[in-house]
Structure formats: C-alpha cells, structure tokens
Design goal:
Elements: H1 9-18, E1 27-29, H2 35-48, E2 55-61, E3 64-69, H3 75-92, H4 105-113, H5 118-121, E4 122-125, H6 131-134, E5 143-150, E6 154-163, E7 171-178, E8 188-196, E9 207-211, H7 214-217
Antiparallel strand pairs: 1-3, 2-3, 4-7, 5-6, 5-8, 6-7, 8-9
C-alpha cells in the first residue's frame, strides 16, 4: 500500500482492480493515521463511489473510514475465513490434532484449491454467538472473536471479525470435520477474543488476547 498522503485516485483504483473482486470495498481503515491523511483517503473514496447506486453512505469516525454498501466477493474470501478458523482450532485444541489428519482432508482441499461446495464448509449469519453481545453490550475497541468445539458430530469453529462499538459484522460458522471420532468423546470447547488497543496505548503489541468463559458467554444452538 502506498503512503496514504501520496495515494491518488488512479493509485487507489488500480489497487481495487488488482484485487480482481467484483464490486469491491465495503470498508477502508486508516487506523493510526493523522486527520490530514484520513481526510485525504476519505475524499478519494467519495470520488470513486460518487453516483454509485449501490452506495449507502461513507461515514467518518475515530480515524476510521467506513463505506457501507452491497459487497460481492468470490470464494477466496470464504477460503480465507476457513483458514483462520482451521489454524485457530489447531492452535488450541487439546485432542492433539495437528492438521495433517485424514479427517481434515476436505477442509484442507477447500482452503488450498477451492474444492467442494462453499455452503458445505462455511455459512454466514447475522447477529452474535457471544451471549453478552446478544444482550447489546459492545466492546470499547475493535477485535476478533473466535470459538471452536469438537464433538462426535463434527468439529466446528465460529469467527466474527472486527467486532466493535459501531460495527455489527456477520459471523461465520465453519465445519472443519464431520463425524470425526469413532469413539464417543465429551464436548470440548474454547474461545478467545483478540482485542485491538487504542492507538495511543500500543507499544510492543497492537492488542490484547483474552480467553472466553465458555459456560456463560457462548450461546449454543
């Protein structure tokens, strides 16, 4: 990405085109930039989407530019979400799964090659799977919430990205494996929140890492 202050209309349009996604961009963030740079990128976005019937509004708040409208994306987007979910499960499961097991072959082939039907692997849902968010509470900063569970029925993960005070993102449920165990196992579940710190509080790291209390925070179907 070029320096924000040097970015012009042609540069931005070329970057959008290079992504090779139809009707691109639902959000652009300039977190950490000063007001001048933020206003600059804001003005470029207004020029690009001027007169676009799909455009609802471009709103400016807290150094973040949000463009809301209709978003169309291809399966690479979903494969990216599935990859996040898969690596999250592998990082925290206490069953000993490392990812090379035969039960994960379908999800590996979906991530790497796009094989299989997208709807069999990942589904998008409105709302929240964390109970406090269902009640209306919102975290003071933006972050990512991930959750996974393993049962005899399946191994699933839920991913909700950029949850924050002024944004209601969808969440995704990912089926990592179906009928993974030949012997009955107790349900195993874990979840974490990756929360960004305000820019003026960031030092060595950009955020903090918190384990979710599964019993009272996850709404099970």
């Amino acid at each position: 990405m070029p320096n924000i202050s040097k970015l012009n209309l042609d540069n931005l349009q070329q970057l959008i085109k290079a992504e090779n996604i139809k009707n691109p961009i639902c959000e652009a963030a300039t977190i950490g930039e000063n007001n001048e740079a933020t206003n600059h990128i804001f003005s470029l976005l207004k020029q690009i989407f001027k007169g676009d019937e799909k455009t609802d509004i471009i709103a400016l708040f807290q150094g973040i530019i949000k463009y809301s409208g209709r978003l169309t994306y291809d399966d690479r987007y979903f494969r990216g979400i599935v990859k996040i979910a898969f690596h999250y499960y592998l990082a925290f499961n206490n069953i000993g799964h490392q990812g090379h097991e035969q039960i994960f072959q379908p999800v590996r082939e979906f991530i790497r090659y796009g094989k299989g039907r997208t709807q069999d692997v990942i589904s998008e849902h409105k709302g929240y799977f964390v109970e406090q968010l269902r009640w209306g509470w919102r975290p003071p900063t933006y972050g990512h919430i991930l959750y996974s569970e393993a049962t005899n029925k399946n191994i699933i993960a839920r991913v909700q990205l950029f949850v924050g005070p002024e944004y209601d993102p969808p969440y995704y449920e990912v089926v990592l494996s179906r009928n993974p165990f030949s012997i009955k196992i107790p349900r195993q579940a874990f979840g974490h929140n990756y929360a960004y710190l305000p820019h003026n509080q960031r030092k060595q790291y950009d955020g903090t890492f918190h384990e979710l209390a599964i019993a009272n925070r996850i709404k099970m179907p």
